[in-house]
Structure formats: structure tokens, C-alpha cells
Amino acid sequence: MAESATPGRRRGAELEHAIYRATLGELAAHGYGRLTMDGVAARAGTGKAALYRRWPGKQPLVMDALRHALPPPPEPDPKRPARETLTGALTAFRDVLAGRTLVPGMGFIVDMLHEPDLRALFTEEIVMPRLERIEAVLREGVHRGEFGPEVLHPLAARTGPALILQSFLLTGEPLGPREIDLVVDTVLRRTGSPHRS
């Protein structure tokens, strides 16, 4: 069902945010394959020309909508334990899969399997930067002595998201805080500081 148009003419960020919300709503309702610029415009309560002035087609529109809605990548914070930052990043990933954000969740992830171009773009522009940030958090933890150097193996950054995704696929339920903590333990292999005995 289309959203009603906002009284008065929306411009700039206000209109873009409405279009992003409409795009994500259309993704959730119809999937990427059946998403159309007409449908997004109708849901956003705007004209199709407003979309085409900003995006040449639905793929760049969907990518921008996802960037808008997804939690930002984790940043190493010298005032925050690296483990806490890692836990926050994995919890945010869990929330995305569980549909607790504006992103359509698992349905969109499965949908991408049938859209190779979209999957490649999503991996390059959204997934990889987040994995690189997780690697940076792990390196910071090693540098500060919170983790042993063993955590810097090639698959470390991917292990946590993979375990969360696998659990969701197997059970259909998002992991709770205790399970997220166990995932973090698995990523870190319970090595702790390299200076401990």
C-alpha cells in the first residue's frame, strides 16, 4: 500500500529518506526481483521523475537505501574494550538478519542469491568494508593486549557473522545475548591476553 504524500513539497534529505523507506518497504513486500521504480515512487508519495533524477535504476537505489538503513561499521575505540566493540558489531548483524532494522532481513539475503550482480555489489560495497572494520577491531585488541595474536587468522572476521547466519538458518530464531557472547568467545578462541599464562 502506498504511503500518503507528505503535505507540501518535500526536498533534499527529507525526500531522499522517504524514498529510502519506501524502497525498503517494497523490498520487504515484493523482493528485489519484483521491485519497480513505479512501486517505490507510489509508496513514497512522489513522482517517478524524482527517483530518476537521483538514481538511474533500481540497483543503485536499493544500494543507497541499504547504506542508509544499515548500522554503521564498527570503529576501534581506544576508550572501549575491543571485545565490547566486537560484540556490538555482531549484535548489530544479528538485528539485521532478525528484521529489527529497516532492512528486510533474511528475506533480502536469500533474495540476493538469485541476483548475482546485486550480490557482488553488496559484497564489495557493504560486506567487505564491515569485515575490514572487524579485522581492525581485532588488530586493535591484539595491540592493546586484550587478545592473543592467534585471533588474526584469515577467517577471524568472517567467523562471527557466519555462525550467526548459520544459527538463524537452522533455527529461524535470532541469537540472544548469551549466545552472541559464545560466538565472540569462538572468534577469539578464548585466548585472552598473550601475556597470560
Automatic annotation (TrEMBL):
DNA-binding region(s) from the entry: 36-55
InterPro entries in UniProt: Homeodomain-like_sf, HTH-type_TetR-like_transc_reg, HTH_TetR, Tet_transcr_reg_TetR-rel_C_sf, TetR_C
PROSITE patterns in alphabetical order: HTH_TETR_2
Domain HTH tetR-type: start-end pairs: 13-73
Identification of the protein by name: TetR/AcrR family transcriptional regulator
Keyword 4Fe-4S set for record: no
UniProt key word DNA-binding: yes
Key words of the record: DNA-binding, Transcription, Transcription regulation
